[in-house]
Structure formats: C-alpha cells, structure tokens
Please model this.
Amino acid sequence: MRLWLLRHGEAELQAPSDAERALTAHGREEVAQVTVQLQGRPLATILASPYARAQQTAALVRDALGFAGPLLTVPWLTPDGDPRQVLAQLDRYDAGELLLVSHQPLVGALGGLLIHGHRQQPLPMQTASLAELDGELLAAGSMDLLALVHPRPD
Model:
C-alpha cells in the first residue's frame, strides 16, 4: 500500500476561526510545487480535512492531476485528530494509493507512528510538505518512508 501525506499550503493568519483560514497565494504556489511528485501516480482516493485550507489544497491537487476519483471530506483529519483513530478509519479504504490532506500536528504524528511505531519522532512537515510511505499494512511501525518533499523556499 502506498500512502501520501500532504500538509496544506501556507494559510492566512487571520480568519473568523481556524477552520476558515484560507490558502495564501504563496500557499497555492507551494502546493503546485509538490503536486508534480504525484503526477502519474495511480491514486485511488483523496481524503481531506474539512478545514478550508485543506479543502483548497486537495482541490488544487485534484485539478493539477486531472484526478477523477473520489475526493472525500473526513472529520478525523483535523489538526488535533488522533493518529490512532486515523489508522482505524483508514481500514475501510481499499488497498492502493491514498492521499491524505491534513494539518500539523496530526500529519507529522501520523507519519511518525506509521514509520517508527510511536509518536515521539514525528515527521517534520512544513506547509505543503509531501511524504510518501509504503508498506504491506497501514499499522503502527509497518511503513517505510520513501520520500519527504518540501516546497522550495522563496
């Protein structure tokens, strides 16, 4: 199974709520930079946090790839989500290539859990960082980190 973890691009600092923070122009550019890593990949599903910046990031990826598969909004990919709950939720998705669009600290903690079997070594996920993980099972400590790509600094 191949799992892609994507942190949303840079977002506005101010909004009526954290969930409503939208991507900045720079954040859109960051997403465009890392999306090239997904070109030609046989993604089965894109799962995204309901927060505006994650939804916008997922839409940018979908459009850039011409992805026709499902783009699903799930409530368990928010910043304070529990990585173990995410693993339990992912059991319902078929094997193949999944892209999760989420936030820190969840996305870093989830990556660390999948690779190391614990959350003490989270992946260093900057805005629009993309991690590629591979393994036989979606379980703690069962995946290998194949790549961790960060957008170019300005």
